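Board work, copied verbatim: HesB/IscA family protein
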Amino acid sequence: MSTESADGESRPRIEVTEAAAEQAIDLLTEEGLDTDVAGLRLFVQQGGCAGLSYGMRFDDEPEEDDSIYDHHGLRVFVDPASLKYIEGSVLDFESGLQAEGFHVENPNVVSECGCGESFRT
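↓ predict structure ↓
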């Protein structure tokens, strides 16, 4: 498991549950991406009624200044600007009667909007 940026500098941790890793790896494979190089990008962007929201997408490879985390065979890429908002977070995959999807448990959040789609630190 790597918790280093591409330049070898140590970074705060991001955790990924086994359920989230399995789901993301299945999706990466369906997209035809090489899971040894490609990964899931987790980022924070401006938006939502609370001010910030999470974003996720698949990337072919990490950017030069990304922190790279490897959990259960899934590579997760986080840019430096996003890392300050989500360090210490856990990415999980939830499946239930109402909804199914990825969820970020972020210890830095001080408030969330009513729908849970955006947050403030």
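The longest strand covers residues 39-46.
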